[in-house]
Amino acid sequence: MPQLRKDPIIGRWIIIATERAKRPKDFSFVDTSPPEKECPFCRGKEYLTPPAIYSLTDEKGEWQVRVIPSKNPFLEANKDFWKKGEGPYDLMAGIGSHEVVIETPQHIANMADLEAENIQKVFWAYRERIETIRKDEKIKYVLIFKNYKWEAGGGRVKHARSQIIATPVNLKRVKEELEGAKFYYDYHERCIFCDMIQQELNERKRVVLEENGFVALVPFAPRFPFEVWILPKKHSPDFYKISWEDAHSLALVMKKILLKIKNLLKDPPYNYVIHSAPFRRFYPGYWSTIEEDFHWHIEITPRLTQVAGFEWGTGFYICPTLPEEAAKYLRNVEV
Amino acid sequence: MPQLRKDPIVGRWVVVNVENPLHPSDFHLTPFAHKGKDNCPFCYGNEHLTPPEIQVIADCARAPNTSGWKVRVVPNKYPALRIEGNLDKRGEGIYDMSNGIGAHEVIIDTPDHFKGIEELEVEDIKNIVKMYCLRSLDLRKDRRFKYILIFKNVGAEAGASLEHPHSQLIALPMVPKNVKEEIKGAKRYFEFRERCVFCDMIAYEREAGERIVYENELFLGFCPLSSRFSFEVWIIPKEHKGDFATINDLELEKLAISLKEVIRKLKKVLGEHPYNYIIHTSPINTDGYFSYHWHIEIMPKLTRVAGFEWGSGFYIVFTPPELAADYLRKA
Description:
heterodimer; A: alpha+beta; ten-stranded antiparallel sheet; three-stranded mixed sheet; B: alpha+beta; HIT family, subunit A
């Protein structure tokens, strides 16, 4: 019998389609990417990209992680800021920024194949960039995400990188989580993510791994098969307040999860996105319990199924793999 | 300078690339790999390959599950939901769940394996839309259902697993999230202004003119100012009406003409491309929604939707709707 499950945070119902239940080997991935171009992200090719905004070096003093402005930015800084209405619509100047984080000087495609110390530096670069961007009062949110492989929206060059986008508005998906978390907090006076972690750790059905203060789990109502969330066990609303040591623990967990996904599902395309609280600025609609009610986390979504248009159009997802089984498969992969 | 635009219904911001827009020839679409009609379960003569039919439109006498039909509805062979059983909702700690009660039907648009909406006769499209209504009206008698979702996937990239033209219907025991949001947004707008947000969009778009794609006496086809996708087109009745399934015969006719025209234009401008359309209509067996306004959203799938869109609900539109509408108007 198929099951309907509701995401406890934003209240999205999803269908777990047991009729066409899929195991890892049922997903076949066809590489559709166009031929690779000359890589501008390798060491020695720095002249092909705009100058770095920020970089972190290795023990030899050479860069290991490098942040550059995007060549085709979705949003641009230092422009006149305007807002206006047009009929029932609202418009705003597209200010903000769009940066690319080059995760390694070597031509490695998957973050899973980087050393944990390297991934730690990637997280640190995110943190440092958010700290800097935050000083611009017009920016409300910084979104960090990765598109791995062409089918997940990645580029033609197979060199590990992620993106940082700063926006002058709060993003809808994040806003929904914030509202859901606040709604829960208003009644229970507890963080919904903390409660979720506790329930998951008690039940152990969907936990993939737990170590050094982080937990990786398959959510109860995932949108995609083998979706994994990584959360800090200790309550914290802001990713950018992570310590150097915690960035290392997180890197270890991240590497393990990405390797498990890679080995189990034959190196599939994936995306990840970091959901962190927006900057607390005193704008209309500001609320004061965000410190207590929101909990940052990373959502990793392998791209195994062709998402039909109706999923985008309705927010209604059909997930062909039982989350408990997905977690079991992932737990059992040795990395 | 890119522009941010806010959808007036659900309040979603989108980024519109107004400076370096992508033109139709800039989208690199992989050509459809046509499988042909061999062993197609939706073609004449292969009716035994599907589960037994639920309903058909035919203009001559025929035995069930044989050829001669014009539009044929069968249960989905791999249903996401099932109709048997009692609705069983329960909680598990902080989580909520329910068994998967519902219906999942496939509407085979035409016996012709190769004809898309743009090539069918208006009369044929009318039959398809009529079947959408008939199935909706039948299923809503089941009080367990709260929403009936009708949609179409064309092309593998848009999620179609079979190439023979077909649509799908899913009856759900609850209202999906995006529909709920639209209804909430429309209600909020109505409470403040005492006007329908969709009616206001129609009035504004008709006045502005630059995003109109097609118009007849009863329907308007336009690229909304806050489109999420390049070449997204909405077809909306000009008269305020919340429920799709109860449209009258004249509306059926005009809607069929509008669908054919808009999809023909899209194909002419973009070539063969994957797309989806979804009928957005009011929930059923629950409170009335006088502030809602049914419509069809057509979404060509031209770019690869990245994790960014899913993770943030923030969309980047590479072809401004004004430019898209200009191409489509002229086609």
